[in-house]
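For the sake of transparency, this paper describes our internal protein records without simplification. An entry from our holdings is shown next, in its original layout:
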Amino acid sequence: MKAKERLILALDVDTQAEVETLVEELSDFVGFFKVGHRLFTRYGPKIIEVIKKKGARVFYDAKFYDISSVVEKAAAVVAELGVDMFTLHTLGGFEMLQAALKAAKAKNKEIKVLGVTLLTSLDSRILKEDLGIERELKEEVIHLASLARKAGLDGVVVSPYEASELREKFGGDFLLVVPGIRPKGYKKNEQKRVLGPKEAIRRGADFLVVGRPILTSDNPVETTKRILKEIEN
């Protein structure tokens, strides 16, 4: 893939006007635009339509997590919206993952269904003390990614720190979407497990999700170009 095709911009903004401006300015440099809870809660399916009308690809970070029948129906609706990729929480279990996959592919066989393993804001302490999960963090990620693979999903969302093990385990036909990407000179913020674009690609990432470094930049286009250069290197 070209560097542009690997880059996903997280549209963590509040207004449709901001979305339209960003898509217009950056569609030549960004492969996908990610819509999350913030935008979808405010605008609903309309915001996906806005992006698609501009000829851009949409990654809907839905993170569905519910009983199988509910997620199955939601996945079918998402596929009908024309999004190119969307996410489920792997913690929902095998039955939920498989039902959602089947429903989505029945509506749009080209859609990519991804499983979220563990959020990049989590660390080993939170995993054990808050969530009561006894496996080590990396072990848990590998376990959940294996569950997604078994269910037939197209790939998973993982931090760059687990990418190399998953790439080695699953080979090249399992998509790894990596958030927590921070180019040189940017803060981690609340993210715990972050790396730069170059190192994430070296570890096996297919797609990189970048938000604040571009969104808060005085010149989003130039910042995006610098990120693309890091990917190319």
Summary: The longest helix spans residues 137-151.
